[in-house]
Amino acid sequence: MAQIIESGKSDFIKANVSNSHNDAVAFEVKLAKDLTVAELKSKLEILTGGCAGTMKVELYKGDTCLSTLDNNNAQLGYYANCDGLRLHVIDSFANFSFDNATVEKFELTKDQYEQRTNSVRNYLKQNKLGKYNEEEMAQAEEKRRQQAEEMQKRAELCIVDARCEVAVPGNPRRRGTIRYNGQLEGKSGVFIGVEYDEPLGKNNGSIAGKAYFTCQPNYGGFVSPLSVTVGDFPKEEFNLDDEL
C-alpha cells in the first residue's frame, strides 16, 4: 500500500538507489517529487541497467521496506516526501530462465566491459556517481562510522531493568522498562526490547515464535538504541474519572 512518508517544502528529494544485482552498490540521486513512477523507472533504467517496463521499485527507510511503487501514474512525492530514503530496483529479468541448449550464452570479459561506452559502469564513472565519487564515498563511510559509534554508545547505556523513554518518528513518546539488549534472530545490529507502561507496543516480548523477554500482549516492542533515552522516567498516571 502506498503511503506518504512526511510533508516537506522542497520540490526535490535526495535518495539512494540500489538494485537486486548488487546490493552493495548504492549511489545518491536528486529527484523531482512531481516525477511519475513511470518516469522514475525510465531514469532508473539508465542508472541500473534494468528494464523500465518490467522493473519493480521498493521504497526503504534503513532496512525497512515502506512500500512498493506500483502505481505508474502516481507522483514520486506521494510515496517519498523526505530525504534519506532508498529506492531498491528489482530487475524482473533476473527471474527469467533460458534453455542453455538452445540459447547461446553471451559473455564479456572484464576488459571488454570496461571498453563499452553504453554500460552502467561507464555512466557512473562519467557522472562520478556511487563508488566512483571518492568524496561522496568518503562522506558516506564517515557517516556510517559516526552512526555506528553513536549506536554503540547508546546501546551501552541501555541497561536491562532501567527506565526509559522511546521516541520513534511517527509514533507518540512511550515510557517503559528495558527488558532486553542484544541481537534478534535474522536481523542485523543491536535492538532494545522494551516493556511499555501502556499497551502501545506490538508484541509480548517474542518475535517469530522466539521469546526474548515476557510481558503482556501489546506491551512489548523492539527498537533501535538511537530511539531510547535512559533516565528517571516514572510511570505516568491517567485518572479518567476526573475528565469532563
From TrEMBL:
GO terms for cellular component: cell cortex; centrosome; cytosol; microtubule plus-end; mitotic spindle; nucleus. This is CAP-Gly domain-containing protein. GO terms for molecular function: alpha-tubulin binding; microtubule plus-end binding. One of its GO terms (biological process) is oocyte axis specification. InterPro entries: CAP-Gly_dom_sf, CAP-Gly_domain, TBCB_Ubl, Ubiquitin-like_dom, Ubiquitin-like_domsf. Its main location: cytoplasm. Gene3D superfamilies: CAP Gly-rich-like domain, Phosphatidylinositol 3-kinase Catalytic Subunit, Chain A, domain 1. CDD domains: Ubl_TBCB. It is found in: Cytoplasm. Belongs to the TBCB family. PROSITE patterns: CAP_GLY_1 (PS00845), CAP_GLY_2 (PS50245). Residues 182-224 form the CAP-Gly domain. Keywords: Chaperone, Cytoplasm.
